Structure formats: C-alpha cells, structure tokens
UniProtKB/TrEMBL annotation:
This is Cation diffusion facilitator family transporter. Gene3D superfamilies: Cation efflux protein transmembrane domain. It is a multi-pass membrane protein. It comes from the Bacteria.
Length: 315
C-alpha cells in the first residue's frame, strides 16, 4: 500500500496535469471563439479558464489539509477541502447562469451569426481531448482517493460533453448554411448554449449540495455508518457492552469517527488503558482497509450522559 506522502504526490501530479490542460484548452478556446464569433465556444473556453484558476488553488489546498493540528486549528485543516470544492461548484454554477442569461437575451435580439466550420473543428477536437484527460484523472482519483481530483475529472467530463454537443449543433448549422432554413441559423448558437446549460447544471448543483453538507457537519454518506456499525459489533462481540453510539462525519477525504462504548459499572473490563488502546487499534485497522484517511476516537464510559452532553446551566 502506498504511503500518504506518495498518495499526496500522486494527487499533486494529477492536479498539475489538469492545470496545464485547462490553461491550454482555455486559451485555444478564446482564439477559436474570436474567429468563429460563437458564444458556445466562448462558454467552453471560459469554463476551462475557471477550472484552470481553481486547479491552481487546489494545489495549495492539498498541501494545507495534510498539515497536523495546532493551537490555531486544533482539529486540523480538513474542512478546507469541502470549502474549496463548494466554492468551485458555485463558480461553475454562476458561469452556467451567466451563459444562460446571455443566450436567452440573444434569442430576443436576432440570434448570433457564427463561422460554423471553424467552431465545429474546435469543438470536436476539444471533446476528444477532454474525455481522454477525464479518464486519466479518474484513474488518479481512484489511486489517491482524492475528492479534489475526482471533482476535476467530473469537470473534464462536463467540458467534453459540452464540446461534443456544441460540435453536433455546429455541424447541423454548417450543413444547413445554404438551405431554406438559413434565416433560422443565427438562433442555433444561443439555443445550443441554453440546452447545454440545462443539461449539465445538475453536476455543479450536486457538488455544491454535497460539500455544503460537509461544511455544515452533516453526514451524507450512509456507507460510513453502516461499515462502522458492523466493525464495532465484530470488534466487541462477547464483551460486556451495554450500548454503543457511533458518530461519523466526512470532511473531504477525511473520515472522522467517534465511537462510545458504554460498559456496566460493576464490570472489570477493560482493566487497563492498554486494553482500551488495543481495541482502538483493532477497530482502526479494520476500518482503515476501507477508509484510508480515517481519524478515530473510541470512548469507554460507564455513564451514558457522556454520549449526549448538554451544557449544565445554573438556573
């Protein structure tokens, strides 16, 4: 199994791959958008440049979240990962809404004249490149279990689909340029943008929804709790345990797990702190096979009040 430093290096390599890819695609898109006068191509290039800027920030975030806890950040820096992904989702969502507004406005003002042949060549080439890069990034994301790289891969798929659909629409426009439908062709570009925005708005919406829940401290992953309950049952099978309480929280790639073990007051188990540490280690190893970035805390107590603590306010 790869070490954490090796995984982080793999993640950073993947992000650098995405950084340069987005920059190249964004600059090429701007050039082709200027030549073809297509807002659909412009949307594609702006999307790439937004992803380029976000990828630069993600290099800093991946370094920051692995720092140890300190007096200023007693629980570490893990919360920055969902915060970053949340911001990225919001930016993408905003770009989509601006493109939607611009295209609806164009529909009411005669549409847009475009050079369909030039735009078609760009769109098809971009679609192929984007989908290839997405496949590579998904491979990296699986290897290093990185939510940041995973979001990047989704963005490249989004960009690839965007370019492919634009290419299809532009091909139709090119083929119909000398037909009796020529008067309607200026509306093809804004209609294509509107359809594209409606098609992939759910993707940034899901990114925003999931990472906002993590920022709020709400667990949205039932798999974590299910596997944790199973591991606790097996680990403490046959022991005089009255009750268990499991609390799980995801913050980016990190899983925070708090397990309360309630033991009867007259029981002699566990006898030593060393015994408690052995069970903590057993549980950590078991769950660590599934969750690489696991932080676990096991609390042994004979009083259930420690499970649901409330402030004692004097009346």
């Amino acid at each position: 199994m790869a070490t954490h430093s090796e995984l982080i290096q793999t993640e950073r390599n993947a992000i650098k791959y995405s950084v340069w890819g987005n920059l190249v695609m964004g600059l090429l898109g701007l050039g082709f958008a200027a030549a073809s006068h297509s807002y659909a191509v412009l949307l594609d290039s702006v999307y790439s440049l937004v992803s380029f800027t976000a990828s630069l920030f993600s290099l800093k975030v991946t370094e920051m979240i692995m720092r140890p806890a300190n007096k200023d950040y007693p629980f570490g820096y893990a919360i920055y990962e969902p915060m970053f992904n949340l911001g990225k989702g919001l930016v993408i969502f905003t770009v989509c809404l601006l493109a939607l507004y611009s295209s609806i406005e164009a529909l009411f003002h005669g549409g847009r004249e475009i050079a369909a042949g030039i735009a078609f060549f760009y769109a098809v080439s971009t679609a192929v490149v984007c989908l290839v890069i997405a496949r590579i990034l998904y491979h990296y994301a699986k290897r290093c279990e990185s939510p940041i790289v995973s979001v990047d891969a989704k963005n490249w798929i989004l960009d690839g689909i965007l370019s492919a659909v634009i290419g299809g629409a532009l091909l139709v426009v090119y083929l119909l340029e000398e037909s009796r439908f020529k008067a309607w062709l200026p509306y093809a570009d804004p209609v294509a943008v509107i359809l594209l925005v409606m098609l992939f708005l759910p993707i940034p919406y899901r990114i925003i929804r999931d990472n906002w829940a993590q920022v709020l401290g709400r667990n949205t992953d039932p798999e974590i709790r299910g596997l944790s309950e199973e591991a606790v049952r097996e680990c403490f099978h046959g022991k005089p345990v009255q009750e268990t309480e499991i609390r799980a929280l995801r913050a980016g790639r990190f899983i925070y797990l708090q397990v309360f073990i309630v033991v009867a007051r007259d029981e002699a188990w566990p006898r030593k702190v060393r015994d408690e540490d052995e069970y903590r280690e057993t549980l950590r190893r078991r769950l660590g096979e599934k969750f690489r970035y696991l932080i676990i805390d096991v609390v042994f107590t004979t009083d259930e009040k420690w499970i649901n603590q409330v402030p004692e306010v004097e009346s």
